[in-house]
Structures are given as C-alpha cells and as structure tokens.
Amino acid sequence: MSKGMGILCGMAALALVLGQTEARGDAPAPAKRKARPATPAAAAPADQPAPAAAPEGLLKGPATLPPHWSRNHCPDTVPDGASYYVVVKGDTLWDIARRFLGNPYLWPQIWDRNRCITDAHWIYPGDVLIVPDVNVVASGAGGTGTGTEETPESAAAAGAAGVGGPTGPALVPAIEETALQCAPYVVDNREDESLHLIGSEQGATKVAYADRDILYLNKGTNAGVKAGDVYTLHHPTYTVKHPETGRAIGTKIETTGWARVVLVQENTATVVVEQACADIHLGDYLKPFEAVQVPLITDHPRPTRLTPPSGKIVGTVVDMENDASIAADRQLVIVNLGTANSITPGNIFIFYKVMYPSVPTPRIVLGEGVVVAVRDRTSTVRIFNADDAIMPGEKVELQ
After folding, report:
1. pTM exceeding the 0.90 threshold for the entire prediction
2. Would you give the DSSP letter of residue 398?
3. Tens digits of residue pLDDT in 207-229
4. Which residues does residue 108 pair with via DSSP β-bridges, in sequence order?
5. pLDDT tens track for 88-140
6. What is the distance between the alpha carbons of residues 119 and 345, in angstroms, rounded to a whole number?
7. Are the CB atoms for 235 and 285 separated by under 8 Å?
8. Is 146 helix (H, G, I), strand (E, B) or coil?
9. Do residues 59 and 39 make contact, with C-beta atoms less than 8 angstroms apart?
10. Which pLDDT score is estimated for 138?
11. What is the SS3 assignment for 212-251?
C-alpha cells in the first residue's frame, strides 16, 4: 500500500472513532426519577388489563409509608386497592377535596374517612389520607365522574342551586358561609383573651360597634400584630349546662364579627370592622381569622313518625343560638356530641322527643339537623325540615 493510501485510511479511521464518540456525547442522559414516598403496589400481570390512570398525586395501595412527624396518629400502611394521598406542605382538606373529589365542599367526606385527624384545620406533610372512591364521589358532586378541578362558575352554581347529575343526588350547602363564620360555639376551657378591644375613634360617645367602625387594640408590634392581619371578635357569655343533669358542659362563646388591622404601633393597633355578626363591645377578645368550610348535604325525603331509629349514638340539645328557648328551620343549636364521639361536619341528626318516656311511647320526630361545626364535646347543628318547635332537652340521633 502506498504512503498516500495509508494516510487516507488512517484519517478515515480517526473520523469514524470521533463520530462515534460525538454521537454518544449528544445522547441525553436518562432523567433521574424522583423517589415516591411509599412502596407502590406490584405491577399487574401482563395478561391483565392495566387499571385506569388515577388523578395525578393519587396512589393505590397496598403501600408502606416512611415515618414522619405529625400530631395526627395516622396509619403508615395502606390496604390493597385503597386510593390514598400523601400530604405535602401547604395542603388543606378543602384543596384536597377540590383536587380529587371535584368539589371542595366535600372535604368532610375525606375527614370522615380518616379519623386519625383530630382537627380538620391541621394536617401535616407525610400524613396519609385514604381518599373515597373518586369516580363515585365526583359523579355525585359534579355529574362528570372525572375528579377534575372545578371552575369559579361551577362553584358559584353549586352554591346557588346545589350540584348533582343524573348519576348522583343533588348536593346543597348546609348553611350560608357568613352565618357559619358568625356561629356561636362552646369551649371546655376559656380561650386566650389577652388581645382585646380598648376603645374606638368615637370615644365614649358610642358603646356598641358595627361595620366600618374604627377600633383600638391593647397590643401592637410587641405582640406580633401586623398591618393586614384579620381577627375574629368574640366574647364569653355563660356556662352551658346539660338541661337534664345540670352538669356543666362548657362556656358559650359568641362571635361578634371580624376586623382587619390597618395601623400598628408598639403597644396598640387600629382595626376596621369588616363584618359585624352582632353588637361589638369593648373587651371583646380577638383570635386570628380562620375561614370556615361549609359542608354539603344531599336532598332526601324528610323523616316522619314512621322513620325507624338508626340505632346510632343519641345526644341532647343543650343550647340555642341567641340564647333562645325555642328554635325551628334555619336556626342553630348546640348538641352535646363532638369529635370525641366521631361526629364530623355534614353528619345528619334527627330531632325527636318521647311524650311519655315512662311507658315509653313511640318517639315524635320533630325535624332534622346538619352538623356545620364540631368541637371536642359539642357540635353546632343547623335545623331543617322541622315539623314542630325544638327546645333544649330534645334528643338527637345520628343518621
């Protein structure tokens, strides 16, 4: 072989090697896969059809979750076939229900399915939530069965006329949001009352305050108060006692409204009343505002004297809104059952009484009520489908 031919062959070989190296350099490296927070279920056999894809973020059991810090004592294992979600920072039950059930008002269904959560306002990253059947719940909520996020238009329609489709019952809000935000409640122990109202721009010439009034607080930056903060206003009223036994149940707290901080100094702050639920007075104490979550209820036949007992837990009406002695549709009452009795928002009670308990005669069904807010030992219940007056001491039965 001639010298020139040898040089040409060597150059060709070098070009081939460089070309292969360059091709390997251009090939993208495989993307790193993020580790899932749980051990996924085994893949389906090749001869079986693959299951329908779950919404993004929703997983299927069985699974074992790594340990994490939480005030909730939720299980770290998920049974076979159960749909579950692992909470991340910033999640709320409201948002999780919107994402997976297609309607944020269905959050009580998730809470009811996960009794390990003691307070619906507090869930923690790493908590494992069993999610009810997405298709069934979503079809009842929005009629689509897709579990897709609702739009503002669909949310407005749901609040105005209820939601539902041909495959599920209609769902309607159990109470107006403002009415729930203003609802009274009963506490076992008095709350922190250290931040309170000390005056107003009108001075001593005005003793009760309402919307748009300018009020002064007894603390400012020295207590962490900041401009833009919103606080609810409250005052304690009296000790609630069981109408039959006379035993003290707790202290009734009335919500008088909420206000926004507009100016802060070291030892005081100025607020403007955004919503008055009742007359606001000096001495009313403030708590950070927490938005309420309105449960939905389904339209169903009203109970009658022929409706059989459910056999579930029975409680008693112990107090009423506005210190009333009698109540009917759309009014709020306090019942001596709470989270300690596994009561959740959206639960339905039947109100009843027995005319001659010593016999006893059959119960008289007075109406229904829906749980709209829950404390440890009490629930706030809104009456509906009332056929007669309801008074303290009437019985309630969980449906």
Report:
1. no
2. E
3. 999 999 999 999 999 999 999 99
4. none
5. 988 988 889 888 887 777 787 788 788 788 777 789 898 999 988 643 322 23
6. 11
7. yes
8. coil
9. no
10. 29
11. CCEEEECCCHHHCCCCCCEEEEEEEEEEEECCCCCCEEEE
Residues 6+ apart with CB under 8 A from 172: 161, 162, 163, 296, 297, 299
Q: How confident is the model at residue 172 (pLDDT cuts 50, 70, 90)?
A: confident
Distance CA 213, CA 276 (A): 10
The amino acid present at 263, given as its one-letter code, is L
Three-state SS at 196: strand
Distance CA 274, CA 262 (A): 11
Q: What is the DSSP string of 32-86?
A: PPPPPSS-PPPPPPTTSPPPPPPPTT-EESSEEPPP---SS---SEE-TT-EEEE
335-365: b (≥16 Cβ within 10 Å) or e: bbbbbebebbbbbbbbbbbeeeeeeeeebeb
Tokens of 38: 């749980």
Tokens matching residue 196: 């309170």
**d(Cα 303, Cα 337) in Å, to the nearest integer?**
21
Q: Which of 360, 358, 359, 369 is nearest to 394 (CA)?
A: 369
The rounded distance, in Å, linking the Cα atoms of 278 and 184 is 11
Asked if 214 contacts 259 with a C-beta cutoff of 8 angstroms, the reply is no
Q: Which residue has the higher pLDDT, 175 or 80?
A: 175
Rounded CA separation 89/107 (Å): 18
DSSP conformational letter for 327: B
Task: Tell me the pairing of strands 379-384 and 363-374.
Answer: antiparallel
**Contact at 8 Å (CB) between 285 and 234?**
yes
CB 76 within 8 A of CB 61: no
Please name the amino acid found at residue 135.
N
Number of H helices, E strands in the chain: 6, 21
Cα 85 to Cα 91: distance, rounded to the nearest angstrom: 11
- DSSP at 376: S
What is the residue-wise DSSP string for 298-326? E--PPP-TTSPP--S-EEEEEEEGGG-S-
Q: Residue 52: what are its φ and ψ, rounded to 5°?
A: -60, 145
